[in-house]
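A reminder from the course coordinator: this example appears on the midterm review sheet, so study it carefully.

Given structure:
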C-alpha cells in the first residue's frame, strides 16, 4: 500500500512571508515548511527614529528582521559613534541570537520614522533548533558564512589602513 505524503499548502499571506524572510541571509536556503516554523514567533514591533533597539554588550536575546524602515548599526568609542552599516527593509540583524550566551557587538538604532521590525526571541529559535536539526544546521551555516565574510573584511580593512599588525594577539585574546 502507498503511503501518501500530503504536502502542506500555505496561504497567499504565508507565501508572501516566506519570500520576505528569504531576503535575509539567515533564512535564504530554507524550505517553506522550515520557514513556517518561525511564523508564530514573528512579533511585530515599532520603533521611532533614534530609538535604541539594543546596545553593545547586551545579551543577544532576539533576532530582528526589518519589515519597513532603516536601522543603523554603530559602534561607540568613548563619546563618539561610528556607523558600521545601514540596514533596510528585508535585512536581518542580531543574528548572533542563534548562539546561546552571546552578547551584542554593536548598537542598533532605528534610523527612520516608524521603523517596523519583526522580532524573533532567542528562546523560540532555540526551541525550533531542538525539534528541527535541519533548521539549526541551515541557520548556523548561514551565520558562519556571514561572520566569515565579516571577519575577512575587518582584517582586509585593518591591513589596508594600518599595514601589518600583531594578529596573533587578537587570536590569543579571542581564545581566552
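Designed residues:
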Amino acid at each position: 500500500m502507498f503511503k501518501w505524503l500530503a504536502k502542506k499548502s500555505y496561504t497567499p499571506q504565508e507565501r508572501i512571508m516566506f519570500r520576505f524572510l528569504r531576503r535575509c541571509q539567515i533564512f535564504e536556503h530554507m524550505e517553506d515548511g522550515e520557514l513556517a516554523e518561525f511564523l508564530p514567533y514573528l512579533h511585530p514591533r515599532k520603533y521611532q527614529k533614534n530609538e535604541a533597539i539594543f546596545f553593545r554588550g547586551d545579551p543577544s536575546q532576539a533576532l530582528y528582521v526589518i519589515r519597513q524602515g532603516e536601522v543603523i548599526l554603530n559602534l561607540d568609542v568613548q563619546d563618539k559613534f561610528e556607523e558600521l552599516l545601514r540596514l533596510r527593509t528585508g535585512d536581518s540583524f542580531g543574528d548572533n541570537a542563534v548562539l546561546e550566551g552571546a552578547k551584542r557587538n554593536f548598537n542598533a538604532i532605528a534610523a527612520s520614522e516608524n521603523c517596523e521590525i519583526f522580532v524573533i526571541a532567542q528562546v523560540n529559535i532555540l526551541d525550533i533548533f531542538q525539534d528541527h536539526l535541519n533548521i539549526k544546521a541551515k541557520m548556523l551555516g548561514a551565520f558562519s558564512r556571514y561572520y566569515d565574510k565579516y571577519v575577512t573584511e575587518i582584517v582586509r580593512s585593518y591591513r589596508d589602513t594600518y599595514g601589518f599588525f600583531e594578529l596573533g594577539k587578537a587570536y590569543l585574546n579571542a581564545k581566552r
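The longest strand covers residues 80-88. DSSP finds five helices and eight strands in the chain.
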